[in-house]
Here is the input.
Amino acid sequence: MDGFALLSQHACFGGWQQFWQHASRETGTSMRFGLYRPPGPVRGLLVYLAGLTCTEETFAIKAGAQRRAAELGLAVLSPDTSPRGTDIAGQAEAWDFGVGAGFYLDATQAPWATNWRMESYLMRELLPAVQAELQGVPGVPGLPVGLMGHSMGGHGALTLALRHPGRFASVSALAPICAPARCPWGRKAFAGYLGPDESTWAAHDASALMASQAQAPYPRGIRIDQGLADQFLAEQLHPEAFEVACAAVGQPLTLVRHADADHGYYFIASVIDAHLAHHAQALG
Amino acid sequence: MDGFALLSQHACFGGWQQFWQHASRETGTSMRFGLYRPPGPVRGLLVYLAGLTCTEETFAIKAGAQRRAAELGLAVLSPDTSPRGTDIAGQAEAWDFGVGAGFYLDATQAPWATNWRMESYLMRELLPAVQAELQGVPGVPGLPVGLMGHSMGGHGALTLALRHPGRFASVSALAPICAPARCPWGRKAFAGYLGPDESTWAAHDASALMASQAQAPYPRGIRIDQGLADQFLAEQLHPEAFEVACAAVGQPLTLVRHADADHGYYFIASVIDAHLAHHAQALG
Here is the structure.
C-alpha cells in the first residue's frame, strides 16, 4: 500500500497478522491498524471496530479470530479507536472520551472536528485502501466487506452499516452500545463531538437509525451477542431498544443472550467463530 | 481452595477463566495464577509455564487455548513466572532475571534462595492444591497432569518433567530453551540462582537431563514446536541439542519446525490445538 509502512508481521494459522502505520489525510495524524491476511485466496474482508481504550492490537491479540478466518479465507481489518498524538488539551484525560474513544463518527465541534474524523477515515480512506490492496486489481468491483464491532465498536458497526447502505455485505455486533443518545457514554461523546443540539445525535444512534428505515436494510439478518453478566448492560448498552427498532421495520435480528458472559474478550473469543460464520455466509 | 482468593472469573467457552491469589508457603510471597475450568467433567489438568516477562494472565489472554480445552474437558493452570513484591535490590532491573524470570527452579544463592523457589512452589504447593480442588475427592489418586511451556517455560516444562518422573502424564514445549547451560539467558539465570559452580547446572538443563536418562522417560513421545523465524532461535534455544539427547536415549520426539513462525503468541495460538491434542491422548 503506497505510503503505508508495515510495522510488523507474525505468521499466524498459515497466514500473517500484520500491523501497519500511515499518515492519514482524514485525521491529520499517524494512524495504525491491524490486518490479518489468511493463506490462499481472500474471499472477503471483515472489519472489526474495537471498544473504548482499545488499540489496533487488542482484537488481534485477544479474540482468537485468526483460526477460523484462515479457514474461511477472510481478511480481518482492525483499525485503531481514535486519532492519537494531537496536541488537543485534555485529549487523554478521560478513558471514555478523546483518545481511544473516537466513536466512529466525524466530530463537528471544536477542538475535535479537525482530527476526530473516524467515519471519514474508515469509509473514505482506510477501507478503500485495504480493499484495493487485498484484491490487487484496481478498478474491478471491490472485495465484499463485512462489519462488526464490540461495545463502542458495536455502536460503530451498527451505525456505519446503516449510514452507508450497500457498502457492507453483512453486519454484526458484540455487546454494542445500541442507543448512545440515551446512555452516559454516548451522551458524553455526542455532546463533546456533535454539540448540545440533540437533534443531530439521532443520525449516529443505531436504534434511532434503524427505526427510521423504510424497509429492512439487511434482509439476511443482523447478529448481536450480549452477555447478561455484562457490567455495562443495564446502564450503557440497551440492546432491547435496537431489538424494538428492528422489529418495527421488519429487520431480521438474531440477538443471542448469554447468561454468564461479561463485557470482556473472554466472551468475545467464545462467540467469535459464530460471528465469522455469520459474515462468511454473506461474503462467500 | 482454602486460603486462595478468587480475584476474577470470566465465562469462556461454556466454562470459566479464573484468576486466583494466595499466600505461598514456598516463596513467602503472594502468588497469582490463572485456571481455566472447562464445562462438564474435568478429564485432566494441563499446566502451562510461561516465558520471560509474562504473568499468570498472558497465556489466558493470548493463546486461545480455552476453546479446545473446553471441548476436551481439560483444565488449564497458568502460574506466574516468578515471585513478586519482595524487597530484593535489583529484582526488577533486568527483564531476563529476577521478577518475571524465575526459571522454574529453586535458587540456592543469596539473595534469591529465600523466595525464588518456583520448583517447590509448583510441585509441592500449587499443583497439589489445584489437583485436589479439581478432583474434589481428597485421598483418591490425583487427576492426571500434563505439562507444557513456552521459551523459559518450555525449559521449565522439560526440566520439571524430567526431574519428577511419574508426576506428569505428558509433556510438550513451544520454542523452549533446550540447553540453558550454554545460552546467554540460561547462563545468566543459572549463575545468579545456582552460583558459579557449573556442575550444579546440569540438573536444570533439559538436554543434559535427557542425555543422562537410562531409558526413554516419556515413551509416548514429547512434542516440541519451533519457529524458524524465531529471533531467539540461534542464540538461545538449541532444539537440536535436545533432539540429539532424545535420540541417544531412544526418547520419541516430535520436533515440528515452522518456516515462518516467530517467538510470539501468534505462533503459540497457531499450534496450541495440536499441543492440547498431544496431552489429551495421555490424559484421556
Notes: Chain A is about 35% helix and 20% strand.
